[in-house]
Each structure stands twice: as structure tokens, then as C-alpha cells.
Amino acid sequence: MREVMPPSSSQHPIILFDGVCNLCNQWVQFVIKRDSRDLFRFASLQSDTAGTLLSQHNYEHPPLQSAILLMNGNLYTESTAILHIVRRLRGPIQLMTCFRVIPTFIRNPLYRFIARNRYKWFGKQTSCMLPTPETKMRFLD
């Protein structure tokens, strides 16, 4: 694995996503489209970069079951990661942040249900998504 510096408060938040999942790839495209301030960076969970970052945060859970956000030295997963992401986007999607009042023990089972079924419902690719030339600089691997 190549050496990757851990994220700090001066760096961009990093979204780690399942690079072969169609739903996850659509989510990344959705975020890019609404991230007019160019805040987020991305890496597929299958990449060496993601492996290094997760290792630095002592993350031992199966990573392909969750979107992961690394921000300000913290690691967020599942519904909490999604809510932190939408809070920083532009547009009506920010209204989703009202779901933060719902406890994670209620939010996360719904998240996990979707995660378990995402390949069946949305399909998967045989390889990770390749960014367009316009978005390539936002991807870490």
C-alpha cells in the first residue's frame, strides 16, 4: 500500500464508497453535482488509499457495508456519514439533516437493510468507477 497522510481539519472531507456498487456510484455523482464548494474527496473502498485510511483509524468492520466519511480526524459510518455529507451540500437535500433527531439505533437498521440489498436492487459493476476528466482531481486513487 502507498503511504497516505491521515485527514486533518485542514484537508477535505473524504468519502469512501463501494466502487462497484451502482447505488454508491450514483450517490458519488449526486454529491459531486451538489458540492459546489468542492469540499469532498473520494476513494473507493477497494483502493489501497481507503485501506490505509481505515487502518489509520483502526476501523475493523467490513467496510463494503457502509459509506464512510473521514472528516476533521473523525470517522463516520452508515446513516451518520450520510447526514454529515448532506449537511454540507447545496440545495433541498439539506432537509434530510432533520433525520439527525432520530436515534442511530433506529436510523442504522434501515441503512443496513438498504446496504444488504443494494446489489440486488441496483446492480453492481465488474470494476470500480472511473472518474471523468472533470472530476478526476477529486478522487484520491
- Helical element count? 4
Q: What's the alpha carbon Rg, rounded to whole Å?
A: 14 Å
Instruction: Give the beta-strand count.
Output: 4
Strand content: 5-15%
Output mean pLDDT: 86
What would you say this structure looks like, in words?
By secondary structure, the protein is an alpha+beta fold. It contains 4 helices and 4 strands; from the N terminus they run βαβαββαα. Strands 2-1-3-4 form a 4-stranded mixed β-sheet, covered by helices on one side. The N and C termini lie close together (11 Å). 25% of the residues are buried.
Write the layout of secondary structure elements.
Layout: E1 14-17, H1 22-34, E2 41-44, H2 48-56, E3 68-71, E4 74-77, H3 78-87, H4 104-122
Parallel strand pairs: 1-2
Antiparallel strand pairs: 1-3, 3-4
Give descriptors for this structure.
single chain; four-stranded mixed beta sheet; disordered N terminus; 141 residues
